[in-house]
């Protein structure tokens, strides 16, 4: 620690929430050498998750939706490390390098927990081993490769039933993320089919399964109905009021005794807490951290939590704020100012986090979407154009915005990319074998 530094702020997690905290803190303390800000993340980039589904469908090049964290920081330091455990008593965090080559212990005076969540398989047998999560870049690229592999296998297959099983793609979870993925996939498989002479159009199908009685429960009923009707018209199938009981290598089994033969169950059915967070003495029964209106962890002075790993009370609804990037970034800014107030010994300057959700947008493929913004509802092409404008605006960095805009432009004229990157699949297959 350099001599001048008297206060160390450690931020764990460089996603939407953590990066926003770091960027705002460095703005506040840009003239102060006594405050050291360190951001720790397992990768040296932030993933713009809202565009992950478009990586699966080859509409966007994968590297264009990740933003190097070092490029986003000026004063704050960055460390590419994985946090293993947090000692709140001794104010230290044990970490290791992603290649396991070295361990580190980081000390702090102020700790910000922004580690997000992991895919939640909710104890469904076989789901962790066989289902495809969609949480990070590797998931998206691997799923894309797997989908192409299914086409390659089907093209060699003489049996119609086997081809159908290979070309049935099942999305578990009909929330906006699941629908976004399903719709993009439906476009992708529809466009890719023409390269495979032995594949018939009636053998390719995207199925969405959800335990609720409708899709996109985050949005109003009318928009969900519009989305369902539109996607059905494009050949997608919906199994509503249906729970998954088991996933195997070649099927998804439902609680009502049904079996969907598929080699591609895609898991968009919720999240689980980060194990490091769940192990903390301040975590609740579900493994998340309940904080007060200021995002402080009660009983642990100097510790804050926000984003998907925290439960933050919404005074408007009495319920916690939803786990979205939209909320995480706003929470990040407020947390930074509250941390700064504490560092400056001005507790009275802290402000509670009060935010009204701006709206929700969900792309439905084929240049259509649904959007609900400040009570106004839009659907079809206009909603799609709105989605693209808003999300392009939110994508950090001009270089990334230009690259994504070019990808979108080329996607209108060029065929879908069906190059299969086999090495990604080998990693997954060996991981799945280890779990069995
Ligand atoms: C496919 C998909 C689509 C989505 N679309 C939208 C959308 O359109 N709009 C929207 O508002 N929200 C969307 N979301 C939700 C949104 O991505 C999350 O709510 C948001 O990322 C939460 O921000 P966060 O900072 O809390 O967590 P994250 O962004 O997940 O960041 C957590 C960070 O912590 C790091 N980390 C975790 N554990 C460790 C560890 N042990 N050591 C070091 N680093 C660690 C992770 O690598 C990650 O970088 C989507 C999510 C997904 C998966």
What does this structure look like?
- By secondary structure, the chain is α/β, with parallel strands linked by helices.
- The protein folds into 2 domains: 153 residues, FAD/NAD(P)-binding domain (3-Layer(bba) Sandwich), CATH 3.50.50.60; 215 residues, FAD/NAD(P)-binding domain (3-Layer(bba) Sandwich).
- Helices cover 34% and strands 23% of the residues.
- It has 13 helices and 25 strands.
- Strands 5-2-1-9-21 form a 5-stranded parallel sheet, covered by helices on one side. A 5-stranded parallel sheet has the order 11-18-12-13-14. The chain has a 3-stranded antiparallel sheet with strand order 6-7-8, with no helix packed on it.
- A hairpin with a 3-residue loop joins strand 15 and strand 16.
- Helix 5 packs across helix 13.
- The N and C termini lie far apart (46 Å).
- The mean pLDDT is 93.
- The protein binds flavin-adenine dinucleotide.
- The site of flavin-adenine dinucleotide has 30 residues, from helix 1, strand 2, strand 6 and helix 10.
Write a brief caption for the model.
The protein is α/β, with parallel strands linked by helices and 436 residues long. The protein is 34% helix and 23% strand.
Level-2 CATH architecture of the largest domain: 3-Layer(bba) Sandwich
Which ligands does the model contain, each kind named once? flavin-adenine dinucleotide
Main sheet overview: 5 strands, parallel
CATH class of the largest domain: Alpha Beta
As for the CATH topology of the largest domain, it is FAD/NAD(P)-binding domain
Please give the number of β-strands. 25
Structural class: alpha/beta
Strand content: 15-25%
Averaged pLDDT: 93
Distance between the termini: 46 Å
Order of strands, widest sheet: 5-2-1-9-21
- What's the shape? globular
- How many helices? The count is 13
* Poorly predicted runs: none
Number of domains: 2
- Helix % is 25-40%
The Cα radius of gyration reads 23 Å
């Amino acid at each position: 620690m350099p001599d001048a530094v008297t206060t160390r702020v450690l931020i764990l997690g460089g996603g939407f929430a953590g990066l926003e905290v770091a960027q705002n803190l460095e703005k506040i303390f840009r003239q102060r050498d006594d405050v050291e800000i360190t951001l720790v993340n397992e990768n040296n980039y932030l993933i713009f998750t809202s565009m992950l589904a478009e990586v699966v469908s080859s509409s966007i090049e994968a590297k264009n939706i990740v933003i190097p964290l070092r490029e986003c920081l000026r004063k704050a330091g960055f460390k590419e490390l994985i946090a293993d455990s947090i000692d709140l008593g001794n104010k230290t965090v044990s970490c290791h390098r992603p290649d396991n080559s070295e361990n580190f212990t980081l000390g702090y005076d102020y700790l910000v927990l922004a580690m997000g969540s992991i895919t939640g398989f909710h104890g469904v047998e076989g789901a962790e081993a066989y289902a495809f999560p969609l949480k990070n870049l590797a998931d998206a690229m691997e799923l894309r490769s797997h989908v192409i592999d299914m086409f390659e296998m089907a093209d060699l297959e003489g049996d119609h039933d086997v081809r159908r099983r290979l070309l049935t793609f099942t999305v578990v979870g009909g929330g906006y993320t699941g629908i976004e993925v399903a719709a993009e996939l439906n476009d992708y498989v529809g466009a890719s089919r023409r390269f495979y002479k032995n594949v018939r159009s009636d053998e390719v199908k995207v199925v969405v399964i959800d335990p609720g009685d409708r899709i996109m429960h985050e949005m109003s009923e009318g928009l969900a109905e519009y989305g369902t009707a539109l996607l059905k018209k494009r050949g997608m199938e919906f199994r509503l009021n249906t729970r998954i009981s088991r996933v195997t290598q070649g099927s998804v089994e439902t609680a009502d005794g049904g079996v969907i033969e598929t080699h591609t169950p895609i898991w968009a059915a919720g999240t689980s807490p980060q194990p490091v967070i769940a192990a903390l003495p301040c975590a609740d029964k579900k493994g998340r951290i309940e904080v007060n209106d200021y995002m402080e962890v009660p009983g642990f002075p100097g510790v804050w939590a926000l984003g998907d790993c925290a439960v933050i009370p919404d005074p408007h609804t009495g319920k916690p704020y939803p786990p979205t990037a939209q909320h995480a970034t706003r929470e990040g800014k407020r947390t930074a100012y509250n941390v700064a107030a504490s560092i400056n010994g001005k507790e009275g300057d802290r402000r509670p986090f009060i935010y009204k959700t701006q709206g929700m947008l969900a792309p439905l493929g084929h240049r259509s979407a649904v959007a609900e913004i400040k009570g106004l509802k839009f659907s079809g092409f206009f909603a799609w154009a709105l989605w693209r404008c808003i999300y392009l605006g939110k994508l950090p960095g001009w270089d990334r915005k230009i690259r994504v805009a070019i990808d979108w432009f080329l996607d209108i004229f060029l065929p879908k990319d069906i190059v299969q990157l086999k090495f990604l699949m080998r990693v997954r297959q060996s991981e799945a074998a280890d779990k069995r």
